[in-house]
Amino acid sequence: MFDKITGTATFNLLGKALDTSVKRHEVISNNIANVDTPKFKRQIVTFEEEMAKAFDCRPEIVGRRTDPRHFPINDCNYMNVNATVITDKAHVMRNDKNNVDINVEMSDLAKNTMTYQICATRLASMFAHLNDIIVKGGRA
């Protein structure tokens, strides 16, 4: 019963967004901590692009899995999308080959904090509605 309520797409996407925000916060904090480390390359978290690809997926060929050990073919399930950390090796800003820009990192941190707060508030609202249903027992 609880799985029917918490297994919704909105609930799952909010959970993934919170997990991604936590991972992004760790990566940004690491970038800020290494702003003066020579040869350090900043890292970024990709998630939104991969999630968009999963939602836009229109596979031409769909593989049928008869065993859970089979590899998925053109699997477009958004539940399989996870945050990925990549290293930005393309940009070099300073002579010591460090590419961390503190202004970019601080603005990314502020944006990530707002994203986390929005997702957490929405998820808390969903639990508050669930609590109302449990407490009131269907009475208005």
Q: What keyword list fits this structure?
A:
flat; 53% helix; 140 residues; 4 helices; two-stranded antiparallel sheet
Question: Could you explain how this protein is built, in words?
Answer:
The structure is a single chain. With 140 residues, this protein is mostly helical. It has one domain. The protein has four helices and two strands; from the N terminus they run ααβαβα. The protein has a two-stranded antiparallel sheet. Helix 2 runs antiparallel to helix 4 (102-136). The model has no long low-confidence stretch (mean pLDDT 84).
Radius of gyration: 20 Å
Strand portion: 5-15%
Helical fraction: 40-55%
Largest sheet: 2 strands, antiparallel
Shape, per Cα inertia axes: flat
Number of domains: 1
Give the distance, in angstroms, between the N- and C-terminal Cα atoms: 21 Å
- Give the strand tally: 2
Mean pLDDT: 84
In brief, what are we looking at here?
Strands 1-2 form a two-stranded antiparallel sheet. The chain is mainly alpha-helical. Helix 2 (about 10-35) runs antiparallel to helix 4.
Q: What is the topological layout?
A:
Elements: H1 2-6, H2 9-33, E1 43-46, H3 48-56, E2 84-87, H4 102-136
Antiparallel strand pairs: 1-2
